[in-house]
Design brief:
By secondary structure, the chain is mainly alpha-helical. 67% of the residues lie in helices and 3% in strands.
């Protein structure tokens, strides 16, 4: 299962308007980025985990989709704990490695924040069809149709990148240039294959743009939409849940005296 494939679920979240999912994820992300403390991030993450059963995702689907986060978060924690800003009592001091209470607290805040911001965005958008999202952006948020349709076309093409990469790798292997040269050769082959993918993507994008212009997608005339996108009561509830999670997280951090506004 590709991490770019939309998951069809029977959960409550799967029936919500994509715009509501986007707004809920954005509210949580923006609020959590206003401070770097472990209390707000930990509170938000705990609340999000409580709401996960309503997403309708299986354990395997959730693990596949959030796999990059479980690599990024521990890596960030380790790097920040060792090389982050020192403060408070020194816990470990060996050569270039220095771990203090301050750097450890900062590491926990960053790791939890990566999970708290990433999980709702990934889970909510995993159950969203790109076409439904485009319908919502064009009809609910009233964004320009040219921008929405162009973004939809680009998003649809992203899924082809992985297939193109695999086909390029197989073609190079068939020519006998995929397994030689050691680490330096592997790095050189990666660059060559990435450049080939770039050229292929530019050509495909140019053809698609020409085809869309020929079919009138570049017109400034008001467009009609084949499928109506309605913002209903359940959509308001989801956005409200996003606001509630953000508000409770901030309240907990303020009460614990850990809230530190980054723009202050």
């Amino acid at each position: 299962m590709s991490i770019l494939t939309t998951i069809e679920t029977t959960g409550v979240v799967g029936r919500v308007n994509p715009v509501a999912k986007l707004l809920a994820a954005l509210v949580i992300a923006v609020v959590l980025l206003l401070s770097i403390d472990w209390v707000s991030a930990g509170t938000a993450l705990a609340l999000e985990l409580m709401l996960l059963p309503w997403a309708g995702l299986t354990a395997r689907q959730l693990a596949v989709r959030t796999f990059p986060l479980w690599i990024a978060a521990p890596s960030s924690v380790l790097v920040t704990a060792v090389y982050g800003r020192d403060g408070g009592a020194v816990l470990i001091d060996w050569w270039v490695v220095s771990v203090t209470e301050g750097s450890l607290s900062l590491a926990a805040a960053i790791g939890l924040r990566i999970l708290a911001v990433g999980i709702p965005g990934i889970v909510l958008l995993a159950t969203t069809d790109p076409t439904d999202l485009a319908d919502g952006l064009g009809q609910v948020l009233r964004l320009p149709a040219r921008f929405v349709l162009g973004a939809l076309a680009g998003l649809r093409l992203v899924g082809l990148f992985m297939d193109d990469w695999r086909q390029l790798a197989l073609a190079r292997r068939a020519r006998g240039v995929a397994d030689s040269g050691g680490p330096i050769g592997a790095l050189r082959r990666f660059g060559q294959q990435a450049f080939a993918l770039l050229v292929l993507s530019v050509r495909r994008g140019s053809k698609l743009a020409t085809a869309m212009e020929a079919k009138g997608f570049g017109s400034d005339e008001p467009r009609t939409w084949a499928r109506p996108s309605v913002f209903a009561g359940r959509d308001v509830v989801l956005v409200g849940l996003g606001v509630a999670v953000a508000a409770i997280a901030v309240t907990a951090a303020v009460a614990a005296s850990t809230w530190s506004f980054v723009l202050a």
